[in-house]
Every structure is written in structure tokens, then in C-alpha cells.
């Protein structure tokens, strides 16, 4: 009789693979430059691409619908030669073919079953069944990432011999990049060792780092000397850099690594996660999760938390959206059961940005951006810049008006600008991503960082470094263009500048512009100036 995989083991494998591969509903290029989608599913030819149940945005209705086989084959031919940057752009623009979470989960389940069957063939079913769940998880991940165990003869023999020590040291992850160089994803390798050896991931990471430093990993294999995120990992390069250059060298500040992991992780609390979706996409069960949280999670000293009121308000919005805001109807003195005015979703879907990008993917990428800023500017300063930027964006873009039957939303307090990337900051970032998308989150972070510089300039009475700060903050948003410099000069001119002749708006920040900025900071609130600049740049 065939052994059926235990449900707990399946979930363990599933979560391990998703954590290692990342989540990308759209196509991306792996470390070898091949098209991939979902949880690391290879779609490197038209046949495999056409077999996946991609969704496409209908040109007339604007709604997502299943793509036809002809459309999928044409799409593969169209994107097969596109670089990763252009693929990312199509996701942001809502043009990419997308896999739903349920379809990705179904595909992954079949992949796990197929991989297990192949491993049993390669090492023997009885030998496979002797392994611990952790060993099975690590071995299956090696097979998943590399296609087979053919290049792992020591691992195969150790499984047959039941040698746990050798198994634990040979659950490597490696791949060839597009220039035929071997690369390591040390984060993934550490996770596999932790599973196989039954140790903590932190201990496994120290073991991997030591072996890498001492040359004890597989002979002939070494980390790539590339610095591009897109070449150093066998997963979505835009997913937040689980194996990018910063990850390879490991930051000296453990808070930065924790920041990356928190930003890349989904919100696990059901009610909080649902808040990151429009109410029209909530199932009835999700609405009840929010209602339960409002009633049970805010007792005692938490009872006055404005978030409690907001949860009830979102439940009201759900009822208004699906049943309307008319008065209760009666028949013979008895209340009539309301009838839905629009379909109520039966299936729960993962949160996405307004552009259709997986929210956790977008958040992971923002976490990567923030981590790089933290490595450059310091953890507290970088996080405080994000917090300030999110507050600026939220102030300029309040929640839309709701049904007059309910009145205005309860005002929520601003995010504490304490320089710590905790759960509230993480949720605030994901909330902005869910309502505005990744581009606006980038804008917010840039404005927050600039405001930090402006406040420091006011405090010390000098704007030295204004030119470089402006380039660092706004350059990535404008592809290195000097146009923001001219907008900065125009904003200074509007506020009076240095009291002399207006600045020449020539996009060059020289001594005159720097001096004018310092003088304006002396008489103006820096955050008010940042708001004006952000508005003039179109970022708020």
C-alpha cells in the first residue's frame, strides 16, 4: 500500500519551499535567466507556460479573466526576451499575466507529490521513509531547486546509509548563473541545514558562514562575484533579496536582517490581513474575522484604541458594499432579510497592490530597499525616514469618504517615528502598498528621508551636502535625472529663498541654492517645506 504524506509534513515542506523560493504571481527570471513564476515554477518554454492557469486583465472590462492557450503562447513569445527590469515594470503597470494564490498552491501541492515520488525512485522508498520530517523537508527542497539529486551523490548515498551527519552537511543549494558561475544562496542553505540537523537557523547560518569562509563547501563552488540582485538567487529577484549581496555579506546590525524578514513575511493575524484588501473582496468569513477581532482583541485598557472603531467601520463598509445603505425593510412588522446587491466572494484571495502585484512580494522588495538605506544611513535613521514618509503620504491621502449612513471614519493616530521597524510600522507599510502601490511607497520613503535631512540642516544651521542628499533620495525615482533639483529651486523661490534675487532654476544645486535652503530652513518648518516639495514633485 502506498504511503500517503502526513498533512503536517506537507505543510512543513510547503512553507519551507515558499520561504526559499518566494512568491511571484507574474513571470520573472531566475539566476540562470530562465522565465519562472509562482513558487519557483519553471516556465522556460511555450508549452509549460501555456499549461499554467494564468489570468490576464481583459482589455474591455478591466477585470481579470483566464487567459486562453493562444494568448498564453503569444505572451510567452512576447516576454521571453524581456529583461527582468521590464518584467517588473509590467507587473507594476498591471499588464503581466498572473497566477492566483489558489492556483499556485495547487501547482505546488502536485510538485511536492511528484518530487517525493522521484526521490523515492532515486534513493529507495524504504530509505526515504526512514528520514525524519526535517531531513525529508531539506532533501525535497534540494530536489525542488535542482530538478533531481543527480549532482548530489554524497547526499544520495547518505540517505541510503542512514547517515544523518552526512545528510545534514550535504543539503546544499547551488546553481549556475547566466555566465556559468556557481552561486550560493546561503540563507537557503542554512534553512536546509537547520531542518536536516534539527538545529536553530541561527546556528545553521553560523555553520554555513564558517564553511564558506574556510572553503569547506562543495569543491569548485563559490559565491558569485556579481553584485546584481537578479543574478545571485534562484528565486524572484524583485522579491526582497533573500540572497542578494547584502544577505551574502550579512549586516553587522542584526536589526537590519530582522527588518528584511519582517517586511517579507505575510501578516498572519486574519483580521489585520483582511484589512489590507478592499471590502468588496472580503468573504463573509473574513468580515466575521474582523468583527470578532473588534469585539475580542480590544478589551480593558485597549478598549479606547481608535483601531477598534476602525474595524467596526470596515465591517459597516462591507455591509454597505454588499447590501446597500438603505433602511431596514419590514413585512407585517417583521424585519425582511436583506438581499445582496452584488456577489459576495466565496473564495479568499491573497492581498494585492492596486496594480495587481502580490502584496507580500511588494513589501519584501520595499524591505530590501529600506535595509539598503539602513546599511548606508544607519538603522534608526532609515526607519525613521520611512515612518515620517508614511505619515506624510497618509496625511495627504486620507481614506475616501464613506456612506453618509455611517459618518466619517475615526481618525487614526500617526505612526510613531521612533526609528524601530516593529509590527505597527510593518503594517503601516503594507497598508500603504495595498492602497497606493509600490511606486507611492517609494515616493513616501524618499520624502521621509529628505525631511530627515531638512530637520538636521535646520538644527545645525547648515545645508552642506544638499546636492548629494537630493541625488541619493530622489535620483532612483527619476532615473538619475537632475529634474528634482529644479523643483527644489522653484520651491525655495516660492518661499522667498534668501531674500535676494530668485534662484536660477537650472537643476544645479550649487552654493547659492545650498545657502538659500539653509536660510529657508531657518524660518520655515522643515516638514512643511518637505510637503510643499513633495506636492510640487507630484509625490503626494
Automatic annotation (TrEMBL):
Keywords: Antimicrobial, Bacteriolytic enzyme. Coiled coil: none annotated. One of its GO terms (biological process) is defense response to bacterium. Residues 202-212 have a biased composition (Basic and acidic residues). One of its GO terms (molecular function) is lysozyme activity. Residues 195-250 are annotated as: Disordered. This is Uncharacterized protein. It comes from Paramagnetospirillum kuznetsovii.
Amino acid at each position: 500500500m502506498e504511503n500517503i504524506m502526513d498533512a503536517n509534513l506537507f505543510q512543513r515542506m510547503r512553507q519551507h519551499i515558499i520561504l526559499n523560493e518566494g512568491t511571484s504571481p507574474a513571470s520573472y527570471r531566475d539566476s540562470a535567466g530562465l522565465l519562472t513564476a509562482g513558487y519557483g515554477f519553471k516556465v522556460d518554454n511555450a508549452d509549460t507556460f501555456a499549461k499554467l492557469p494564468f489570468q490576464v486583465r481583459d482589455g474591455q472590462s478591466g477585470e481579470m479573466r483566464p487567459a486562453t492557450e493562444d494568448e498564453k503562447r503569444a505572451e510567452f513569445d512576447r516576454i521571453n526576451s524581456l529583461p527582468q527590469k521590464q518584467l517588473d515594470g509590467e507587473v507594476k503597470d498591471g499588464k503581466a499575466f498572473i497566477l492566483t494564490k489558489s492556483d499556485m498552491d495547487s501547482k505546488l501541492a502536485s510538485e511536492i507529490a511528484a518530487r517525493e515520488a522521484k526521490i523515492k525512485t532515486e534513493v529507495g522508498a524504504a530509505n526515504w521513509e526512514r528520514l525524519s520530517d526535517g531531513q525529508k523537508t531539506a532533501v525535497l527542497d534540494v530536489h525542488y531547486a535542482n530538478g533531481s539529486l543527480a549532482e548530489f551523490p554524497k547526499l544520495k548515498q547518505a540517505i541510503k546509509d542512514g547517515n544523518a551527519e552526512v545528510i545534514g552537511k550535504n543539503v546544499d543549494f547551488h546553481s549556475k548563473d547566466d555566465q556559468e558561475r556557481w552561486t550560493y544562496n546561503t540563507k537557503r542553505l542554512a534553512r536546509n541545514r537547520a531542518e536536516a540537523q534539527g538545529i536553530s537557523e541561527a546556528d545553521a547560518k553560523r555553520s554555513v558562514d564558517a564553511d564558506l569562509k574556510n572553503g569547506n563547501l562543495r569543491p569548485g563552488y563559490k559565491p558569485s562575484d556579481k553584485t546584481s540582485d537578479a543574478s545571485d538567487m534562484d528565486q524572484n529577484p524583485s522579491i526582497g533579496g533573500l540572497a542578494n549581496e547584502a544577505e551574502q555579506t550579512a549586516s553587522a546590525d542584526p536589526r537590519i536582517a530582522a527588518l528584511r524578514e519582517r517586511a517579507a513575511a505575510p501578516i498572519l493575524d486574519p483580521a489585520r490581513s483582511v484589512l489590507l484588501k478592499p471590502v468588496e473582496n472580503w468573504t463573509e468569513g473574513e468580515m466575521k474575522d474582523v468583527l470578532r477581532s473588534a469585539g475580542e482583541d480590544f478589551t480593558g485598557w485597549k478598549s479606547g484604541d481608535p483601531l477598534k472603531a476602525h474595524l467596526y467601520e470596515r465591517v459597516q463598509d462591507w455591509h454597505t458594499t454588499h447590501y446597500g445603505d438603505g433602511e431596514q425593510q419590514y413585512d407585517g412588522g417583521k424585519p425582511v432579510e436583506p438581499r445582496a446587491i452584488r456577489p459576495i466572494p466565496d473564495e479568499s484571495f491573497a492581498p494585492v497592490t492596486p496594480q495587481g502585484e502580490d502584496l507580500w512580494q511588494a513589501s519584501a522588495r520595499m524591505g530590501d530597499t529600506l535595509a539598503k538605506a539602513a546599511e548606508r544611513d544607519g538603522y534608526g535613521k532609515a526607519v525613521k525616514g520611512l515612518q515620517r514618509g508614511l505619515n506624510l503620504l497618509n496625511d495627504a491621502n486620507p481614506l475616501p469618504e464613506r456612506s453618509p449612513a455611517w459618518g466619517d471614519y475615526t481618525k487614526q493616530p500617526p505612526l510613531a517615528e521612533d526609528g524601530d521597524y516593529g509590527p505597527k510600522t510593518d503594517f503601516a507599510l503594507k497598508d500603504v502598498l495595498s492602497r497606493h502601490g509600490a511606486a507611492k511607497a517609494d515616493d513616501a520613503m524618499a520624502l521621509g528621508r529628505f525631511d530627515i535631512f531638512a530637520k538636521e540642516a535646520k538644527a545645525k544651521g547648515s545645508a552642506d551636502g544638499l546636492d548629494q542628499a537630493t541625488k541619493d533620495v530622489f535620483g532612483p525615482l527619476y532615473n538619475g535625472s537632475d529634474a528634482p533639483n529644479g523643483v527644489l529651486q522653484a520651491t525655495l523661490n516660492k518661499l522667498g529663498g534668501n531674500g535676494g534675487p530668485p534662484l536660477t532654476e537650472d537643476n544645479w544645486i550649487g552654493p547659492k541654492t545650498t545657502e538659500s535652503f539653509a536660510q529657508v530652513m531657518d524660518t520655515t518648518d522643515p516638514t512643511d517645506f518637505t510637503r510643499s516639495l513633495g506636492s510640487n514633485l507630484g509625490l503626494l
